[in-house]
Each structure stands twice: as C-alpha cells, then as structure tokens.
Amino acid sequence: MANGAGNAVQLATKLGEVDFPEFTAALITSTFDALLKAHIHQMKTYADIIEDIAMTLDDYVKAYRNTVSDEEIDEWLENHGLPILSTSEADDNDNITITEDDKTALEETFLREGEQLNAQPIQNQGQSSSPKYSLAKDSTTDNNNTPRIGWEEIRERVAEMILARRQDLLRELVRMGLVRLVVDFGEIETRILFSVYGTSTRSRTTYEYTRKTREGRIGGRVSARGKLKKWFVKGFLGGYYQGGSVRVRTSSSYDRDTTGSRIDIFGRVYIRFKSDYAPLNLPEE
Q: In terms of pTM, does the model score above 0.70?
C-alpha cells in the first residue's frame, strides 16, 4: 500500500529545485531596469524636443517635410479660402484655372518680394465677368530673371507654414513645462508557497447468505370395492424427495488506511522604494 506521508516527504525534497533567491533577484533587477529605461526614454524625448525647437525653420522643414500630408495641405488651403491646388484640379497640362480673386489672394499670401505667379490670362473667356487665369504647376524664371511661382511651389510653402506652426507649439509646450512620469512610491513582493499532502485508502465489501431444504419420503395406500361385481383394487403410492440448498455469499469488509502529511514552506521578500529626480530646467534663450 502506498504511504501518503512518505510521498509527501519525498515531494518536499524537491523544494531545492525552486531557485527562489534567483527568481527574486531577477524580479528586482527587471523592475529597476524597466524604471531606468522609462526614465531614459522620457529624457531622450525631452532632448529631441529641445533639439527641434532650437532648429532654424529651414532645417526643421527639411527634417519633417515628409510628416505633412497632402490632405493637410488641402485642408489648410480650404480653411483659408484659397483654391485647392492639387493634381485632381489640374487639366491635362497640369494647369489649374483660378479666378482673379484667387490670383490676388495667392499673391498676397505666398509671394515674396520680387516674385510673381506663373499664371497667364485665359483667352476667349466670352462674357465672363471675372477674368480667369491658368496657373502652371512648375515654377520658372522669365527673361527679366523674375521668379514666377507655380502651384506646386505654393503647396510647399503651405507645408512650411504648417511646420512653422508646429515648431511654435513645441516652444510654447516647453515654456509651459513637460509632464514626466516618475515613481513616487513602489513595492516589490515575492512569495513561495510549497505544500504537499498524501493519503491512501482501500475498501472492500462482501456479504454471504445460505438457505437449505430437508430431504424425505411421501407415501399412502389406495383401496376400492365394487358392489355389482366382486372386484377389489388395492395399491400403494409412495415417493422420495431430496433436499437442496441455495447459498449466497456476500461479505462486508472496509479497510481504510489514511496517512497524511502537510508541509508548508513560506518565503517572502518585500521591498519598498521611492525614486528621486531632478527638475528639468528650460534652456536659456
């Protein structure tokens, strides 16, 4: 029969296979490594922002031009009441038709000193009350070395305005102060619970029942007489029966052997910590 207590003790000897100190050390190290990495990541992000706001606008535009989508440019033009200058609005020659009011608004918004729009009046406009112009896609220079700006360059200048606004917002954000995540209070706890228990049980049930019948004989005589004629019958009847038995055997036997052993081993490591940090100082302007 298996011995429950013996098995429990045998299992308890496997406690040494659980490297609790190594597990605890790994947990503590991983926790502090994660905190340090998070702090370094935040500092790097802050440093990147400081670097971005210290750039000149030209350098900032070169670094982040690819972050401005065509949809953002279209939205900016629409919000400022300007024509949507995009390929979808151009004809087969990549020219976009604009009104005189559009031409004036584009010149006032985007052209720098000495520049002109690369736009030509459309001939044969009929009875149109407002002259229309054909704005070319590419920029060029005329015979007088005057820069003539096309609609593709205007889109680039819109992107520059969008990025200039982003850089201004970053500067304002830094002046207001950046939020950093720090650990003000933390806990690390590890536990080990090792419990074993053994038991063994055996049960048997049997019942027995027996019934017997006796053996013996049976007999008698039979006689008869007649009146009309003289006749006489006389005889003997007899028999033998043999006894039998019916045996049912059921027995009840209940044996129980229960032995148990419980071994509880408890280990705990509890650490309370608090991180310290230095405030971020804004760069002098």
A: no
